[in-house]
Amino acid sequence: MAQVSALPRQHQHDPLRELGIVALNGMFDEMDALGVLQHAATQILPGDMAIVSSFGADSAVLLHLVSEVDKNMPIYFLETGKHFTETLAYVETLKQRLGLTNVIPIYPSSEDLARFDPDGTLWETDPDSCCHIRKTEPLEPITEQFGGWVTGRKRYQTAERGVLPHFELTSDDRIKINPLAYFSDADVAAYKAEHDLPEHPLYAHGYKSIGCAPCTSAVGEGEDPRAGRWRGFNKRECGIHFDFNGAIASPMQANKRTIFKDGTFKPDPFKEWTDETDPAAARYVHIPLTVFVEHREAFLKTQHPLGLLVSPGERIEDVEADLDRFSSIAVNFPAFTDGRGYSTARLSRERYKFAGEIRAVGDVLADQIPLMRRCGIDSFVVTHEPTRKALSEGRLAEVDIFYQPTGAAEIPVGTRPYLRRAG
User: Fold this and answer.
1) How far apart are CA 346 and CA 317, in angstroms?
2) Helices in 40-194 by DSSP H: which ranges?
3) Does the annotation flag 375 for ligand binding?
4) Strand order in the sheet with 49-53
5) Please, are residues 210 and 87 in contact by the beta-carbon 8 Å criterion?
6) For the stretch 241-257, what's the b/e string if a residue is b when 16 or more beta carbons lie within 10 angstroms of its beta carbon?
7) Do 15-254 and 259-392 fold alike per CATH?
8) Alpha helices for 107-259 (secondary structure H)
9) Helix axes of 85-98 and 59-69: crossing angle, nearest 10 degrees
10) How far apart are alpha carbons 217 and 1 in whole angstroms?
11) How are cofactors bound according to the entry's free-text note (predicted)?
12) How many CB atoms lie within 10 A of CB 421?
């Protein structure tokens, strides 16, 4: 029987431990999750092991295994302050259903939040730092108290986890246990059914991997279960997990940031429409207006976020009744001299009261942006480098004199407001 002794609090690298981990990974059948957890709790790290659980879509399986081994095993839940309300309710559901007696919430430092994320929007521009403040920093002093801990990670979830073993040796010579490493999505579903485990309330709505609410979206058929995490970023892990050779997940790198919104360039979760897109499975795309009209019923059935693309010559009036279905309207400006998009934006905002994002796409240049803003456009997809630089440096001209007002508050030059009729 391979033995790996519990670690002292002062860790020193021991090359022989790596061989012990290799031996451990050869001891168990791929699907022997209960055996892996029992051996870890009783033979490898008795009294020196904790669980880290997100209480997400698949957490019930791991927590059921924990309840079979030791209902009082410490289970740490990162209470980031950004969870879905459904997740918080699910914590209580599983505690009661499985008889778990030692679920411990971990909170981020109030000082760190006040200093680095005072308005709670850090996730929009720097999700790595948000995860660090709300997850990594609070968890590190907890895990340092233990010789190892248990996760619910699985190989099938992402390509990065495709080589995940049952046992990992971290870079500081502690042990990470992944009892469900070889479980497939079908295995997870079968286990839930066999033990009549309650589902996370959001699972039925397409949320296959559930983290903090701002950074989690539903996924579609054929997507990685974690594709809905941090859409728009080249980011797959929150930073608390190590890969199979002990290296921490690579730092997040944002995709090319081309959308300017709320005063900064941000990652764009929306992808370009292609003719191969299945209307029933569409998500995070701007659908050309004519395509939406042709396949309206199929698009309306999907629960995923959708956008609408309106090009010159297309009438926003034709989809007035469905505008609330869209989270974003993209107004196409194919050429600097084509101004029809301004009317589309004004109709959407002023007549149809569209409250979501309206973005300008196409030939978007610095001189246009102040005019676009006056018409209700609040986001700009910009590839023109001089315009990008002007936006980044806040060097756009403002329009102070105009002849055609927008909204109800503007008064054009040359008029005498005191002579205007009321109403």
Assistant:
1) 12
2) 59-69, 85-98, 110-116, 122-125, 127-131, 137-143, 185-194
3) no
4) 103-106, 75-78, 49-53, 148-150, 175-177, 167-169
5) yes
6) bbbbeeeebeebebeeb
7) no
8) 110-116, 122-125, 127-131, 137-143, 185-194
9) 30
10) 44
11) Binds 1 [4Fe-4S] cluster per subunit.
12) 4
Sequence letter at residue 128 = D
Q: Give me the amino acid identity at 132.
A: H
How far is the C-alpha of 348 from the C-alpha of 330, rounded, in Å?
11
pLDDT tens for the chain, residues 1 to 423: 344 434 334 445 555 566 778 888 888 888 899 999 999 999 999 999 999 888 988 899 999 999 999 999 999 999 999 999 999 999 999 999 999 999 999 999 898 888 778 889 888 877 877 888 888 888 878 878 898 889 888 876 555 444 788 988 876 678 889 999 889 888 989 999 999 999 999 988 888 888 899 888 888 777 777 787 877 665 655 555 433 333 333 333 334 568 898 888 876 778 888 888 888 778 778 999 999 999 999 898 876 778 999 999 999 999 999 999 898 999 999 988 888 999 999 999 999 999 989 999 999 999 999 999 999 999 999 989 899 999 988 888 776 665 566 654 555 555 544 444 544
Residues contacting 207, CB < 8 A, separation 6+: 57, 200, 216, 217, 218, 219, 228
- Cβ–Cβ under 8 Å, residues 416 and 423: no
Q: Which residues pair with 51 in a beta bridge?
A: 75, 150
Between the CA of residue 322 and those of 44, 88, 193, 277, what are the distances in Å? 59, 33, 38, 20
For 128-268, strand residue ranges (E) read: 148-150, 167-169, 175-177, 233-234, 253-254, 259-261, 264-266
Active site residues: 238
CB-facing half-sphere around the CA of 376: CA atoms within 13 A: 26
> Which CATH number is 15-254 given?
3.40.50.620
β-partners of residue 212 are 83
259-392: CATH class: alpha beta
How much is the CA Rg of the chain, to the nearest whole Å?
26
Q: What are phi and psi of 112, to 5 degrees?
A: -65, -40
Does the predicted TM-score (pTM) go above 0.70? no
Length reported for the chain: 423
Q: Which residues contact 379 (CB under 8 A, 6 or more apart)?
A: 259, 260, 261, 328, 357, 358, 359, 360
Annotated domain spans of the chain = 15-254, 259-392
